Amino acid sequence: MLAPLDLGDDPTVVELGAGTGRVTDALVARLGGRGRHVAVELNPELARRLAARHPGVTVVCADAGRLPGVLREHGIDRVDAVSSLLPWIAWHAPIADLAAAALTPTGTFTQVTLLPTTWMPPARRQEHAVRARFAEVSLSRPVWANLPPARVLVARRPRPGTT
């Protein structure tokens, strides 16, 4: 999920749906103290635990649909990467639009999708939304070690939108 991210010298990265922090742990290691890392988590207990474990990460207890406001509240105009573990239910908000609007022109959006459900209408709508907002979209090979198996949707070159 993090391999496609080009994290230069001083990147700003947003993580949506940080949950228990598995991706947060990997991002902290990959950033090595560089840049800025904002983790957005809806569950207050998970957000509290994550903030305690990673004091260098800005952990925000909020709905991912509030991304523009969260960024404004933290003085962030644009980000270099948005990494999302959000489930379909969280896509009540236009996540692809919000991610595209938050990214720099060279930014990258990654979204984990569960392989066994890719044929279902919510998964197809999710992928369609990403393809509509980004000029370059690819899918990783299946990650069989994940339970359930998953793949990563990688989107680059955000298109202008209305969000």
From TrEMBL:
Transcription found in the keyword field: no
Residue ranges constituting the Methyltransferase domain according to the UniProt record: 13-104
Oxidoreductase in keyword set: no
Alphabetical GO biological process terms: methylation
One Gene Ontology term of the molecular function aspect: methyltransferase activity
Ranges in coiled-coil conformation: none
UniProtKB keywords: Methyltransferase, Transferase
UniProt name for this protein: Methyltransferase domain-containing protein
